[in-house]
Amino acid sequence: MIARAAAILRVLKDERSGLSLGQIATRADLPRSTVQRITGALAAERFIIQDPRGGGIRLGPELGAFAEAANFNIAERCRAILNDVTRDTGETTDLAVLRNGGMIFLDQVPGLHRLRTVSSVGDVFPLTTTANGLACLAIMPGDEAQEVILQEQAGKDIAQIQDRLDEIRSTGLAYDREEHTPGISAIGFAFRDLSGSYHAISVPVPSTRFDENAPRMELALRRAEARVTAEFGLRP
Asked: Nearest-CA neighbor of 75 among 98, 50, 105?
């Protein structure tokens, strides 16, 4: 029962406008009668709702509350790691989560330099021009990553981005050299939490000291990635 409910929720996760019972049954590979019974139970708990615009069944507000709680939990658990990266590099360290096609900042430890980068918690950055976004794209299944890239880079040649993702997959680290913000460069890595959400830890710095500090930042981030995997059991 739980596995089938999870399969239905995963199908709905990628369809924000909603699906019919028949569509859910087809995509989850379940009998329609089973889907009808399970969706009834999920609706009673507000895990799913009927889309008010008539688009079908979609995820409900109760799951949003769980997502917010999970975000807080991840931020709390990663705080010590962010502190250590900033201590080892002297630079600002960010934690972000992928939500609705953008990287949302969950937490930040400010750097120790007078000249430092600062972003506000809740800020939303794109994926294809940021270190944290590219890192997340690189650990996605290829077809999922391509769909996101096409949405963000509509009408543009995406071959170059695909080549960069291949490089990130081989090295484990993503780089932004003033692609998102002039004068600021960054390095980051991504991981998935136990619910499957994509997160990234990144270090943005003024470009004037990026090359000099890059080896130190790379080492600190690789240590952070090992800790995320070992301490939390999260998938890199």
From this structure: 105
Give the number of other Cβ atoms within 10 Å of residue 2's Cβ: 7
Burial of 15 (0-12, 13-18, 19+ CB in 10 A): middle
Beta carbons of 92 and 110 less than 8 angstroms apart: yes
Is residue 84 packed enough to be buried (19+ CB in 10 Å), middle (13-18) or exposed (0-12)?
middle
> pLDDT tens across 131-187, in order?
999 999 999 988 888 888 887 776 566 788 888 899 999 999 999 999 888 999 999
Confidence category of residue 68, pLDDT binned at 50, 70, 90:
low
Three-state SS at 69? helix
Tokens 């630079």 correspond to 91
Which residues make Cβ contacts (< 8 Å) with residue 106, sequence separation at least 6? 71, 74, 75, 95, 96, 97, 121, 199
For residue 98, the one-letter residue type is: L
As a whole number of angstroms, the distance between CA 120 and CA 110 comes to 11
Residue 120 is predicted with a pLDDT of: 67
SS3 label, residue 17: coil
Please tell me the distance from the alpha carbon of residue 109 to that of residue 222, in angstroms, as a whole number: 18
Q: What is the pLDDT of residue 216?
A: 95
CA 29 from chain center: how many Å?
27
Q: Is the full-model pTM beyond 0.85?
A: no
